[in-house]
Amino acid sequence: MSLQTPPRLLELAGQSLVRNEALVMPPLEELPVELFPSLFMEAFNGRRGEILKAMVQAWPFSCLPLGSLMKTPDLEILRVVLEGLDVLLTQKVHPRRWILQVLDLRNVDKNFWVVGSEAMTHACLPNAMNKRKTVKSCPSMGRQQPWKVFIDLCLEERPLDEFLTYLFLWVKQRKDLVHLCCTKLSIFAMRIQKIRTVLRMVDLDCIQVVEVNCNWKLSMLARFAPYLGEMSNLQKLLLLQIYVSNLEKKDRFIAQFTTQFRKLDHLQRLYMNSVSFLEGHLDQVFRCLKTPLETLSITNCLLSESDLRDLSQCPSISQLKNLVLSGITLSDFSPEPLHLLLEKVAATLQTLDLNECGITDTQLAVILPALSRCTQLTTLSFCGNHISKATLENVLRHTHRLSELSLELYDIPLESYSAGGTICWRKLAQFRAELRQILKDLQQPKRILFSTVLCPRCGRSEFYGLDLGQCCCSLPA
């Protein structure tokens, strides 16, 4: 008997039961637990509403990961499932095997529905569902509400769709019985009044990820800040496209926003891209942080030299694993603040991205000693910094000592360009040969790639690897 036979038998059994609804309904609670996922999928795909409703009432697991079955929000399926939950909510005597606690509308648990998968097998073990991560991801699980509905919210300028409107109304009408838990909140465009209305529907303690990407004024961010401060379990914050109007009271609004960081005890990852108020105020942000960050990404922002110095002295960056400063112009700065920053994070740093910073040969020479002490570094990205061949060779002689470093990304050195600014393929070939010899002498098996190389055959601009001996379309070296 092949290993594929058991899941195939379950599929056939599910198809047979779904086709004969009269047989399914009476003995549903007596069906083997391991048959429920495949049977539910069969009823879901066949849009057999009455069977789905009955299966919700008899569901033998603590979580129903419905979101991973729906490729897009499906109002009809949602309505059927909620009707099944309503039956349970109104029952004084629940089914014998009733342990359902969570309806998960997020697309996070696809493996549960794969017939014969380890996830499905584990779910069918006694008490397995009580230990599922999905159930544990809400900090208010110990409260009195017996039902939790998990969802990720994406707020855009257009009105809420029928799916969310129906769900919000259903939850509102059962607010003493149902807890709506949003773990990820993405705001792409919406007036603050509508955002407030949505946030009143969810428990802000549950939100773990917030993404704001809607070209807000700083004043709008300040109005949103009090809600941010209530997200006490927030782990990841992304701010994109925040600009300052000339008429805004900049200092007051910055203070209203940054003081909320004092309440975020679990923040680990902070991303800020094209945030225009940071220059001269970076210390205010990090002064309010209470816990060490794991990831810090500041990209395409204006910073002052003093900002970088303040950052190097901030306690919350002492345990950074990932540091991204891409698009921060450093060419006119003293290299000392960056040197101090790398020294501060040398013991823990794993990923360093200094793309498009305009770092010069002289600056790089100063920071190299600190870089060579980043013993946990696995990835170094240094594209967009036009350095000489001699400096690049010096960098590689330093980085070869980093045993964990497996990927390095650089620009083609300046000497490989012609007077007109285009790549000279003859010079590039000579450089590659010289660098191969250097790496051979250093016994360095790392993957080193160079960006912005236009392939003369296919015309694409891609990374060009010394170790591959070919470009994007396998052009011979």
Describe the structure.
The protein is α/β, with parallel strands linked by helices. It contains 17 helices and 14 strands. The protein has a 14-stranded mixed sheet. Helix 4 crosses helix 5 (75-90). It is globular, with a radius of gyration of 28 Å. The two termini are 51 Å apart.
Summarize the SSE layout with pairings:
Layout: H1 5-19, H2 21-24, H3 36-45, H4 49-58, E1 63-64, H5 75-90, E2 102-104, H6 118-123, H7 133-136, E3 147-155, H8 162-172, E4 178-187, H9 192-199, E5 209-217, H10 218-229, E6 236-243, H11 250-258, E7 269-275, H12 282-287, E8 295-299, H13 305-312, E9 322-324, H14 336-345, E10 351-353, H15 361-371, E11 379-382, H16 389-399, E12 407-411, H17 425-442, E13 447-454, E14 461-465
Parallel strand pairs: 1-2, 2-3, 3-4, 4-5, 5-6, 6-7, 7-8, 8-9, 9-10, 10-11, 11-12, 12-13
Antiparallel strand pairs: 13-14
Helix pairs in contact: 1-3, 3-4, 4-5, 5-8, 10-11, 13-14, 14-15, 15-16, 16-17
Give a quick summary of the entry.
This protein is α/β, with parallel strands linked by helices and 477 residues long.
Strand content: 15-25%
Counting copies of identical and different chains, the oligomeric state is single chain
Adjacency order of strands in the biggest sheet = 1-2-3-4-5-6-7-8-9-10-11-12-13-14
The assigned structural class equals: alpha/beta
| Shape category | globular
**What's the N-to-C terminus distance?**
51 Å
> pLDDT under 50 segments (min length 5)?
1-5, 128-135, 467-477
The count of β-strands is: 14
Average pLDDT works out at 83
Number of helices: 17
Main sheet summary: 14 strands, mixed
Radius of gyration, in angstroms, nearest whole number: 28 Å
> Helix content range of the residues, please?
25-40%
